[in-house]
Amino acid sequence: MNKRWKQGAAAVLALGLGLAAVLSGCGPAKTEESVKVRIGEVTRSIFYAPQYVAVNQGFFKAEGLDVELTTTFGGDKTMTALLTGGIDVALVGSETSIYVAQQGSGDPVINFAQLTQTDGTFLVSRKPAQGTFDWNSLKGSTFLGQRKGGMPQMAGEFTLKKHGINPQKDLNLIQNVEFANIPTAFASGTGDYVQLFEPQATMFEQQGKGYVIASFGVESGRLPYTVFMTKKSYIDKNPDALQKFTNAVQKAQNWVAASSVDVIADSIASFFPDTDKEIIKGVVKRYKDQGSFASDGIVDAEEWSNLQNVMEAAGELKARVDHGSLVDNRFAEKAKASVK
Q: Is 0.85 surpassed by the pTM of this model?
């Protein structure tokens, strides 16, 4: 009897082990660990709406990426963080990659996915325009501009020169105010006109402190204004991660193109907890209407050439840089073709 009991117990044990193996095989497959990518954005701005959509709609996560987003406050600080390994990817103006190349970097910074394709600033007047706005009305005025050498200032001066205005001779040009303090300076009485980003431009309109009368983004044309970039060494070591990253950006760009202003504003609102939802909607609408959000990540040769035209006009370009030397469109082209 003891022998029969042992044989039965052995059979039950074998059956149990077999069943466990079957159930184990039918369970969920082990998922791959997510890849961490550290992004440094030059500032926190509604202008970068597609980036925040990629985070909040789960597009980065769906690609197996664990994105860490940090605001690095300024092009020079953003590029320093990238070059020293503090971040993996920078979201900043393409002109910064040219500045690095002009300094002779042995590990060039490569633009691989465009996010915005126009300047994001607006001409704000202290008084509403009377009838059709005439750029010549700026002559002799005090103009509160952006920091010298930055893309907003260069796009602003490019536009002024296009309309026959010499910024240094025809205006009382103020460029010594810190970026973060420009709205406050104008609100306190400095300048007849100011070049402002959103949401300050819309907020000034709502408060009766200023009036948007022109768009530097529309006037200066398409250019790779804000682009995701990284060091060539990082591209060489992490091509798969960068492809997934660019796929997520393309998903966000498609989503933004297909979504209403209200839906986009709802998606990105968590990144702007101190900004009224109606202001977010107004800013998104203004940028969407003028085509500031790029529809794909490709930096084409025409945009790259226009960028350098703007830099040349501002006296900030030592020599023109070949499109292929600082732009790698492989990831964006593949994402555009494959992501639906």
A: yes
